[in-house]
Amino acid sequence: IPPVVAVVGRPNVGKSTLVNRIIGRRQAVVEDVPGVTRDRVFYEAEWNGQPFTVADTGGWEYGVKGLAAKVADQAERAVEIADAVLFVVDATVGITATDEAIVAMLRRSNKPVVLVANKVDGQSQEADAAALWGLGFGYPHPVSGLHGRGTADLLDVLIDTL
Ligand code: GDP
Ligand code: MG
């Protein structure tokens, strides 16, 4: 059974776009606005001869518990079954309360976390990525899931954690 990588992060940070980049085809649903009802979905992937399963997470509903709690709950279920986690943050927005809720859950999980500073489409967002050191998950790998910038280096690091 291939190892499982859970892709977690708040809505609209670019998780599904990154998943499509990793699996090499457009299969995960990319949404301009968050809130689409969809459970987590598994995709087969491979990098440097290492097969793995990617779990995209999404489909947040704005329920009584509030968005931050909902996101953390769903992400937690995916993380429980995962061997490693890609924690995606929108570097151009920075750290939000919802990101902090996910951080707390990831700390409790004790799973290996690779921090993704997404939407670093060019050199001008590199400083935004560096600000994410503050999350406490080590190097914020600067990536553009949309354009593919940095994703090869990210996958090299991810594979090393599996
Ligand atoms: P998710 O809710 O985390 O799964 O985010 P999506 O993958 O659905 O993307 C949300 C929005 O962000 C879409 O409009 C994407 O096109 C955009 N997006 C995703 N990745 C990038 C990126 O690397 N750079 C830029 N500029 N936009 C991105
Ligand atoms: Mg999505």
UniProtKB/TrEMBL annotation:
Q: Where does GTP 1 bind?
A: 9-16, 56-60, 118-121
The residues covered by the EngA-type G domain are 3-162
Say which domain of life the source belongs to: Bacteria
Q: Tell me its family.
A: Belongs to the TRAFAC class TrmE-Era-EngA-EngB-Septin-like GTPase superfamily. EngA (Der) GTPase family.
Self-association and partners: Associates with the 50S ribosomal subunit.
Functional note: GTPase that plays an essential role in the late steps of ribosome biogenesis.
Please give the name of this protein. GTPase Der
Organism in which the protein naturally occurs: Enteractinococcus fodinae
